[in-house]
Amino acid sequence: MSGPRTVSTFNRRGFLGAAGVGAASLGTAGLAASGTAFAAPAPDPVITEVQDWNRTLGDGVQARPYGKPSAFEKDVVRRDVEWLTASRESSVNFTPLHALDGIITPSGLCFERHHGGVAEIDPAKHRLMINGLVDKPMVFTLDDLKRFPGRVNRAYFLECAANSGMEWRGAQLNGCQFTHGMVHNVWYSGIPLKTLLDEAGLRGNAKWLLAEGADASGMTRSIPLDKALRDCLVVWGMNGEMLRPEQGYPLRLVVPGWEGNMWIKWLRRIEVGDQPWHHREETSKYTDLLADGRSRRFTFIMDAKSVVTNPSPQAPLRQKGPNVLTGLAWSGRGAIRRVDVSLDGGRNWRTARIDGPVMSMSLTRFYVDFDWDGREMMIQSRAMDETGYVQPTKDELRKVRGTNSIYHNNGIQTWLVRSNGETENVEIG
Ligand SMILES: Nc1nc2c(c(=O)[nH]1)N[C@H]1C(S)=C(S)[C@@H](COP(=O)(O)O)O[C@H]1N2
Ligand SMILES: [Mo]
Known about the structure:
EC number: 1.8.2.1
Protein name: Sulfite dehydrogenase
Distance between the termini: 28 Å
Shape: globular
Bound molecules: the ligand Nc1nc2c(c(=O)[nH]1)N[C@H]1C(S)=C(S)[C@@H](COP(=O)(O)O)O[C@H]1N2, molybdenum atom
Largest sheet: 5 strands, mixed
Domain Oxidoreductase molybdopterin-binding: 115-277
Domain Moybdenum cofactor oxidoreductase dimerisation: 300-413
Pfam families: Mo-co_dimer, Oxidored_molyb
């Protein structure tokens, strides 16, 4: 489908006026009386003719020693936005959320964010060092790490703090891949970081860790010790196989629920200290500049957020009658408790049906099965997590945070579905 483009920000009054729809009539926008059936099939050559694949043998086994998606799925790919960054080595691409279902992101479609390109590391030459305020500084090979008892498997979302960052000043990018695609959710296999810290022996004054990557950017982030001991993992596995190079092969730090920047890839060193380091990625980057010139410091947790992935600009509505609306919700504070969906720009809400496992700090899938009568809709979703936190509107966020920010935009997204089914990124205010 189309790449990103800029659309204007809509003002609720202006928009409704232009569309010629009275506010009152939108109360049940898009909801026709139920009973609309699927159309009976017209005479269809696909059924009556013999197709090529019926006539000839297909490839044998081993034609694809490592399987790939069907060639017909060639458009389901990560995409970048060329004007966003100066180089592809320090850049980002986006997960095609509109083309996926369930909660697990296929490994090859996980968005990539790196600051010095993808390090291609020979695992035999990779080490993890633990130094600083420990009794015994240690160096581990990958094989050493795989011999530790207590290995775990966990699914967690990773969201870059800059996800939706281009939307602070209004609707920008036309597709949930671009507005919300800096998130992925995979199964990790590895060991609790606590296991390694226990092995090295923490000194009494230990309070912070510095995690460091082996890539050309030498990415470093300070992590409070209580978080490290609570649930951080050192992982080599991703969706049942080794990590992909893009995701930090052969070793990555997992920091559940916290901003993606802290999940150091190509992890090679953990230094234990008594205070944070205040390196680049936690001072000049990944802090939020407020309207009064002050900055929010250490905004680690990713607050509850959700997005409708279908329909969305890259996945417009094709048919009247029965349709399935679906989307994703997540929270860095725990499990998603409820997702509400509005079809009329936030006037009326209904509770979506959640399907699939609901796990703490993992993507959660929701559905609303509905009949569409061809009316324009303004679709929104609103997540609530187990702490009772409710996803705010973008205007509520701007009131507290101003518009200087890039990071931590978890405001409610609006998609305008036109009567021809075409769908656009808009904002109502
Ligand atoms: N070593 C290293 N780790 C890194 C980065 C990096 O550039 N180098 N980028 C960080 C950022 S900003 C994010 S959002 C996540 C992205 O993880 P992903 O590439 O698996 O999506 O990795 C983080 N870890
Ligand atoms: Mo990031």
